[in-house]
Amino acid sequence: MTNRVQLTDLGRQLPARIDLFVCAASFEARCRSIASPIASVTSSAIIVRNRESLASSAAEAEKLQSLFGDKASEVILSLESPTQTADVLASSIIAKIKEVGSGNVFIDITTFTHEQLLILLGLIREHPTPATITLGYTSAGEYSTNTTDEDVWLSRGVTTIRSVLGYPGRLSPSKRLHLMILVGFESERAQLIIERLEPAQISLGIGDQAQSVSPEHFSRNARFHARLKEFVDRQMRTGTAVDTFTFSCIDADDARKAVLAHASKHADSNTVICPMNTKISTIGAGLAALEYPQLQIIYASPMEYNETGYSSPGNTVTLFELQELLREPHLPQAAAAHPSLTNLES
Amino acid sequence: MNTNPFKVYSPEEMSAEQVMKLFVPVAESLEIGGPEHVFIHGHRGCGKSMMLRTMAPDCQMIATGKQLNELPYLGIYATIKATGLDVAEYDRLKDQYAGLVLAEHSLVSFLGSKVFQSVAQNCMPGLDTTHARDEFRKFVLQDVLPRIQPGSDERAIALLAQALTQIKDAQSMLDILNAASAVLDAMYGAALDYLRRNSFTTEYQSYKGPLLGYRDFLYPVMCRLKSLSVMPAGKPIYVLLDDADNLNILQTQVLNTWVSYRTGRDVAFKISTQLAYKTYLTTSRQRIETPHDFREIHVSSIHTGSSSANRYPQWVEKVVQKRLNDFGITADISDFFPEDEEQEDAITAIAESLKKQWAIKRRGYRAGDDAYRYARPDYIKQLGGTSKNRSTYRYSGFQQLVHISSGIIRFFLDNASTMYAQQEIKDEVPTGDMPGGLSVTRIDPTIQDLVVRTAADELMLGGFDRLEQELIAGVATDEAKELKALRNLLRALGGIFQEILLSNRSERRVFSIALSDDPPDEIMKIIRLGVRNGYFYEAAIGTKEGKWRTRRYIMTRRLAPHFTLDPTGFSGYLFVTTELLAMAIQNPKQAVVLFKENRLGSVVDDRQLALGLGND
Amino acid sequence: MSLLSYLREKIYPGINAGLAFLSRSPGIYTDHGPEHFDEVVRYAGFLLEKPLKDGTEIGLGPYDVFLLLMAIRLHDTGNIAGREHHERRVGEILAKVPNACSDRFEADLVTRIAAAHGGKTEAGSKDTIAELPERDTIGAGPCSPRAIAALVRFADEICEHRGRAAIVLLESGRLPPGNKLFHLYAASIKSAMPHRETKTFKLKLNFDSKNLEKKFPTPLHKQQRPDEHYLLDDAYERIAKLNAERIYCNRFIDPVLRTDRIEAEISIVRQVRIEGQVVTQKWAKPKVVIIEEQGYPEPDGLWKGQLRGMSGSAIAKKLAKEKDR
Q1: Per-residue pLDDT tens over the stretch B303-320
Q2: A–C contact (≥3 CB pairs within 8 Å)?
Q3: How far B305 CA lies from chain C's nearest CA (Å)?
Q4: Which residues of B are less than 8 Å from C95 in CB distance?
Q5: Same-domain status, B74 and B140
Q6: Which of A81, A156, A175 comes nearest B461 by C-beta?
Q7: Lower CB density within 10 Å: C or N end of chain A?
């Protein structure tokens, strides 16, 4: 079950003791929003950082470190090497989760990259545990806080596009490519992905407004929404086969269902998913692909981020337990839900 | 969805009729047939995919009017998509024997499936007979399936048995081909399943599934295929492999190994790349070389070559006219993409004035030439010193749009497609197809200008830049750092070219640089990155005396609107030293300042030189 | 069933027949039956024996030895379907025993190593060993495929002896003419042994003079058109080939395992009747030939092919042309 709470009420929603807290240090202050109120009830913490952005995450990492003191250890991942990332996550977070046994684990997913989050999800699924794993996501207040409304940006350019480790899909050479993008505010990156992949069919996923995260009254956010709308409209007018669907940005299970429902309409194609919205919906996409391994998930690494003004922290946190979702039945019941996706040889 | 005559279609999605309706040959001299392996290099959108697609049998039957078995070759068209063949898991196997073996298996099963898919999609007009069906059935049952060793993989074994029954009982040719394709899809899938098992472990995973190789499967199958009476018997197969840059390094080495086999008379590979082919080494670390192992063609240089001044615009005109004709528009292209009349009148007036002055002073080779060279830059200069005023210059009219597309047809079509869509919105055209033709018959100059300016700004990787210095060190991946360095370089050069345009120099339409010394690897890496990503085109120049040659890099004219440059031609180039390049990469603003102070770089009027390319 | 049991039961017994009837030039080939495989194992053992006993590092680990044995056991099995391209049929045969290898990758590697003992690459070169990786990693650990393939190849090359000849058919004159040279040569081998102390391969050939008086037809599969050779000349060609294989295989194996020279002792004997008894007499003093790298190496200049178009005169011409322009 998904719970949206005010940050100020967070402590009341969580168990009295957190055996392991995991978060990713970032250039965003949001990376501390959850840690701050619950550091005192945490036994141990792992702070994840990226080798390539040590400088930009240094300030927040230091603050996180001082929140947890001796209880925290740091692990360094690589933005350039998914296998290295997976191995480090396995030897640190997964190993620690095993030690925790039936205890409580909290993972703040807010500032992981989409790729790292999906890898972590895959690892957790690979190593079943009796621990209770709660995922938390801090919403953003305003985006692109350091620009005018006209010049809003979050990231620029794309360096590489690759499949996410653990989600290679099972693409059939004789089938056409169907690209599903869970579009966020980075429509330029979405455009580049479409250009590079040249899919036969494009499905643009738009976050359900009723299920969206950001309050609309921020004018910069409104500009992002307008740009997104222009992007979708342009695709519809200039692209050859474009479809749209909606998904939840705040409920992973709903997002999973939306992804699967739409993918099953294109079961005669190779479906590749690119989640670019909230980390919650990315978890949803990951759950969908873990359940139906023929779905591939890809990640497009941006050239640069608007580190100075990416976002301001919001006031709400979304919480949900991962184990419930991972306990979803795999193939047999899934076959009933989406029969067209289950024939792995078709 | 509305009808947009400039929609860019993926060639593999197009029917043969559509292809042949829209296709205009790139160049008469561009010939990639013949019993040899060929690499075709060109930026995305230059027309190479379309070229390969036209070599598929369905297109050839339309083009030649011949039956399938009369064609001079059998083309098997296969596109390699990004993340299609290459998945992240290969990184686990890159230092293991299993990596190369699996890479070969995946490439063989991928192409094997494509063979049958290609026959199903592109050859059916010649195969819809009982004789063809029976011959194919026999071929698959006797020459294809027995070559597949499923190993001890129960699923693969069951699948093969199932396919055997399906094919024996199949009533139609399509059923046979689909079943054969499905078997190979499954063989390919077995590799992916194995790779998935390796995702999250460093422990060796044993593999019991099928393994297919080129020598024991793909090559003999293709040789047997082409000997069938319904196929172009005795003629070669051309494997038309599109976008081979999307192969990972292991798969690339495997492909190179196949290229090293002298099999061109039976099976020849025609491989397209977007200038990012990963290696020319084979699996045994030998290098394939041209011309011994393969021939090479650079499509981009054909469009930007010395004879291309008129050829490319003429080609684009033909392509665009075909598309408009398809929708019943026979009007002149310049009416569909009109210029800004007021602007062009003003430029013409400047040109007339210049002609009169120079007729008196006898300056320049021909007064007409000089007027052309100087009028537009003078007009831009006259608009005023601030960038805001210069942004009133209109990039409109077919000629400007063609030049801005820099030799890549895709860029023209993409922009035209967007312009059309925006014109529809402006004209408040309702959604849904319009019966009886196009809803838009003319694109406003303001829309043309807005679209190319937006595209130029996006190409500069985001937003309007004020030549600020970028921090390059320490905060990004290596790739990101290099792209930022490239952006700095472009900012510096764009800024310098702008300064030249607005100056009083005799040659002001400078769009390229020539290297006056030998820059170190770290700088050349950035320039090569620029070439690979379509920001620069490479050429060579030498003096009339032929005493020396050096490299020249022409900046893409797609950036002309970003820096308010004249895209309609260029005839000078900037001689740069390592010092200028290094400064440009570190501090573009400073590089522009130093240039203005005549401390870095010199402009050469290349009318005095024998040019390698691109002179208008 | 283990691989060896399968081969001994199903494959080895059929190889001679396969060679005889299914080759493009049918006939009686020298023995390629079960003993041949045992002997190649033995000869490989001879090559490895001394350094292993001495504890010298030979650049091969236990897994390499396993791969070596597997490859030897398989290398000539493809002959069961005829001589032509027999090395390419190893994979088919190995596939009959799915559990012979720990997985398909290992099976693939064994197949490629075994196949590299002969034949040509797809590009038409005899350099089949270079197509293998020099060193690689597979499930059980690191291995040296090239070195192993070189040992298989060389052991197979030196494993030629009198026992492989069809002596009875030779003496009764019933061998097809095109096959005689094979068997006569094999029958003339008195001994063939690696001598590890001196890193020498010692070959002793004993020719009966009656076989040296006339020419014999060359094996059809070795010639484009029918030809005839004297047995001695044929023997010298084989020794030359042996030396070529020595040099080639040495490139890939540890210096400790290399064979640095061939010592060939050539004797000619004749049968004479003395007082009613047939006596074998030396016809001439045995000639010992040493084949090894000696003296100052002759520069072969083969590497210069990589500099095509860049000879001194070619570059000077180009420069002169530029000046004239």
Answers
A1: 555 455 678 888 899 999
A2: no
A3: 22
A4: 149
A5: yes
A6: A156
A7: N
Residue C70 lies in a domain: yes
- Residues of chain B with C-beta less than 8 angstroms from the C-beta of A173: 78, 109-111, 113-114, 117, 181, 184-185, 188
Please tell me whether the interface predicted TM-score (ipTM) of this complex is above 0.90: yes
Asked whether residue B14 is assigned to any structural domain, the reply reads no
More confident residue, C271 or A205: A205
Residues B187 and B262 in one domain: yes
pLDDT score, position A344 = 42
Residue C313 lies in a domain: no
Domain boundaries, position B397:
309-459
Are both B266 and B317 inside the same structural domain? no
Task: Tell me the fold of A3-143.
Answer: Rossmann fold (3.40.50)
As to burial, measured by CB atoms within 10 angstroms (0-12 exposed, 13-18 middle, 19+ buried), residue A1 is exposed
Structure tokens at C300: 């072969």
Closest CA in chain A for residue B155: A345
Say which residues have a Cβ less than 8 Å from residue B436's Cβ, sequence separation at least 6: B328
Collect all residues from B whose CB is shorter than 8 A from any CB in C: 95-98, 100-101, 149, 151-152, 204, 206-211, 215-216, 260-263, 283-284, 286, 544-547
Is position B116 within any domain? yes
d(CA C65, CA C60): 7
Residue bearing the bigger pLDDT, A104 or A231: A104
B438 touches chain A (CB under 8 A): no
Strands annotated E in chain A: 3-6, 20-24, 45-50, 72-77, 104-108, 132-143, 155-163, 176-183, 201-207, 242-247, 269-275, 296-305, 311-321
**Ranges for all domains in chain A classified under CATH 3.40.50.620:** 155-309
DSSP codes of every residue in B488-530 = HHHHHHHHHHHHHHTS--S---EEEEEESS---HHHHHHHHHH
What tokens were used for B276? 């990012």
Average pLDDT over residues C113-117: 96
Query: Total domain count for chain B?
Result: 3
Which class would CATH give A155-309? alpha beta
Chain position carrying tokens 């098992």: B197
The answer to whether position C115 is within a domain reads yes
Model confidence over A88-130: pLDDT tens digits? 999 999 999 999 999 999 999 999 999 999 999 999 999 999 9
Give the list of residues 6+ apart from residue C314 with CB closer than 8 angstroms, or none. none
Number of domains composing chain C:
1
B284 and C132 in contact by Cβ < 8 A? Answer: yes
Residues A7-35 pLDDT 10s: 888 888 888 899 999 999 999 999 999 99
Query: Which run of H or of E encompasses B130?
Result: helix B130-139
Q: Which of B208, B261, B284 sits opposite C130 (nearest CB)?
A: B284
* Burial (0-12, 13-18, 19+ Cβ within 10 Å), A327: exposed
Range of the domain at C100: 3-261
Q: Which chain B residues touch A345 with a CB distance below 8 Å?
A: 159, 182, 185-186, 189
Sign, CA torsion C228/C232/C235/C240: negative
B560 within domain boundaries: yes
Query: Are residues B121 and B269 located together in one domain of the fold?
Result: yes
Cβ contact B152–C98 (<8 Å): yes
Select the residue of B98, B209, B546 nearest C325 (Cβ to Cβ): B546
Question: How do A72-77 and A45-50 pair as beta strands?
Answer: parallel
User: Does residue C288 belong to any structural domain of this protein?
Assistant: no
The separation between CA B256 and the C-alpha centre of its own chain, rounded to angstroms, equals: 21
B446 and B487 belong to one structural domain: no
Task: Return the pLDDT at C220.
Answer: 63
Cα separation of A304 and A155, whole Å?
6
Q: Does the distance separating the beta carbons of B208 and C103 come in below 8 Å? A: yes
The reply to whether B5 falls in a domain is no
Alpha helices, DSSP H, located in B144-237 = 154-169, 173-197, 219-225
The Cα–Cα gap between C99 and C110 comes to 13
Q: Chain A contacts of B82, Cβ < 8 Å?
A: 161, 196-197
